[in-house]
Write a structure and sequence with these properties.
By secondary structure, the protein is an alpha+beta fold. The chain is 15% helix and 33% strand. The chain is built from 8 helices and 33 strands. It binds iron/sulfur cluster.
Length: 482
């Protein structure tokens, strides 16, 4: 009788998996490889001198099957937190603390893979189309994973994840929330269902798909701004222009831009809430139609034309959306009813100009994490000194080599554009929580002054030769293109 092979315990996170030989742990980040725990993903190093392709090296002079061709590691290599491992339990020094000399200054970079229960994803969806009411719950596979938040100019904003969705609800909700954030952060497409709204597919760096329709352009501006930008182009070509917009519908003859240009009154009447001259709110309900309204027939927003205020047979009218995708040209008949006609060639160019000035519609995904927690102990013995150093701008925080934006105020709450990191940089653990790479770079003297782990500082060559806590490979890759 042979004995069952021994399972090994991974202690890289609170889950503490027992891993059988040849198997990976619950997060797939660690495995039992022939009786030793190994990190399954390579450590990612970025180099400006690696122009194309990738270089894989055995990261440490250990017994590890690699495909290294013997070339030395480029001297400008920057070790990222991707694949570096975590510091759990947190008092341990970070996996890699690397010294370097930059323009004669001695620097230290502290590299770790941080585990985030407190984290979220903000998604900017460039569209005027109605995705759902502000505050509406966003679901994946029926589980609430976030909500619609305040719309910004030309974009709808979604807030996903966060500790309440990760750990405050059912296990299924936490699992789905984590999987949704992970997929988005790693550049994958995710289908979201919004209560009382749309089915939208979002993917970082690509156009959204709203209710099955690929969004093409984000608006050039609100209806009022569009009037301001293009009133001069329309002058002399048409008697009236209405730019239909869910936010502010613009009417050129009444708008200040029209007044300055000497535009004549047309007796038009808009059914909506008049804000200031030529600017109307609430002409319709939000929807998937013209300019983010529910309109498919823009004439619905017009009231009766007023002869006493300038309306007359033959008066021409252009109605156009804020992207130029929807447009219609009318001429008033004897009864002052708009009759649709072919758009004159001269006006076609002005509509095309709106379209040309619209930027491509994209989804932008920002990971937001709080790096002010226990991971700081892996950087320095007195963690608040790291917080102060980051806040003071002495320590630069990057994520997978990408620039981060750190919020003012307490803690180290940062945001990073996930398209700036190499693909597949994010991971997860089933607590559930996200795993994100971090690098803190600061002058060596400042690092020592904050109580940094001096005994763990190694040069790049030493780090490559000795490796980390667990055997792994290193992948040297060019910095992601901007
Ligand atoms: S979930 Fe991953 S990191 Fe955590 S103990 Fe299991 S294998 Fe290790």
């Amino acid at each position: 009788m042979t004995e069952a092979p021994e399972k090994l315990r991974c202690d890289a996170c609170p889950v503490m998996c027992y891993i059988a030989p040849g198997q990976t742990g619950a997060c797939d980040r660690y495995a039992n490889d022939g009786g030793r725990i190994v990190r399954t993903d390579p450590v990612v190093m970025l180099s400006h001198t690696v122009e194309a392709g990738e270089l894989v090296v055995p990261f440490a002079a250990r017994d590890w099957p690699g495909s290294w061709d013997g070339r030395p590691v480029p001297a400008d290599s920057f070790i990222t937190g991707i694949g570096s491992g975590t510091t759990y339990p947190d008092y341990k020094p970070a996996p890699f603390i690397v010294s370097s000399t930059v323009a004669g200054a001695e620097m230290v970079t502290v590299v770790t893979e941080a585990i985030f229960s407190y984290c979220g994803v903000k998604v900017k969806v460039d569209t005027d189309r109605f995705l759902g009411p502000e505050g509406a719950v966003i679901r994946v596979a029926g589980e609430a994973v976030g909500h619609v938040t305040t719309a910004e100019y030309g974009s709808q904003m979604l807030s996903l994840g966060g500790v309440h969705h990760l750990t405050g609800g059912s296990k299924a909700q936490g699992r789905v929330t984590c999987a949704t954030m992970l997929a988005l952060c790693n550049g994958e497409a995710v289908a979201l269902d919004i209560d009382g709204g749309s089915h939208v597919v979002v993917q970082a760096g690509l156009a959204p798909i709203v209710d099955g329709k690929h969004e093409r352009r984000m608006r050039v501006g609100c209806g009022s701004a569009t009037i301001g930008m293009f009133a001069v182009q329309w002058q002399g070509l048409v008697d009236e222009v209405v730019v239909v917009d869910d936010h502010i519908t613009g009417v050129v003859s009444e708008h200040q831009a029209g007044k300055v240009l000497g535009w004549k009154p047309t007796g038009i009447r808009i059914k909506g809430h008049r804000s200031t001259p030529g600017r109307y709110f609430r002409v319709s309900e939000p929807g998937l139609g013209w300019g983010g309204t529910r309109l498919t027939d823009p004439l619905e927003i017009l009231g009766a034309w007023n002869r006493k205020k300038g309306a007359q047979p033959g008066l021409s009218l252009l109605m156009v959306s804020t992207t130029g995708e929807d447009f219609a040209y009318y001429v008033l008949d004897e009864t002052l009813c708009p009759v649709r006609q072919e758009l004159p060639e001269a006006l076609r160019n002005t509509v095309h100009l709106i379209d040309e000035n619209c930027e491509p519609s994209l989804c932008t995904v920002l990971f937001v994490g709080g790096a002010g927690g226990s991971l700081r102990a892996g950087v320095a013995r007195n963690p608040v000194h790291l917080t102060r150093s980051v806040q003071a701008g002495v320590t630069r925080l990057t994520s997978g080599g990408a620039e981060t934006w750190v919020w003012p105020g307490g803690g180290i709450t940062f945001m990073v554009d996930v398209t700036r990191l190499p693909k597949g940089s994010f991971g997860h653990v089933p607590t559930p929580a996200m795993v994100a790479p971090l690098e803190f770079t600061l002058p060596r003297h400042a690092y020592l002054a904050m109580g940094g782990h001096e005994a763990s500082i190694r040069t790049l060559d030493e780090t490559v030769a000795e490796g980390g806590e667990y055997p792994t490979l290193a992948r040297i890759t060019p910095w992601p293109a901007r």
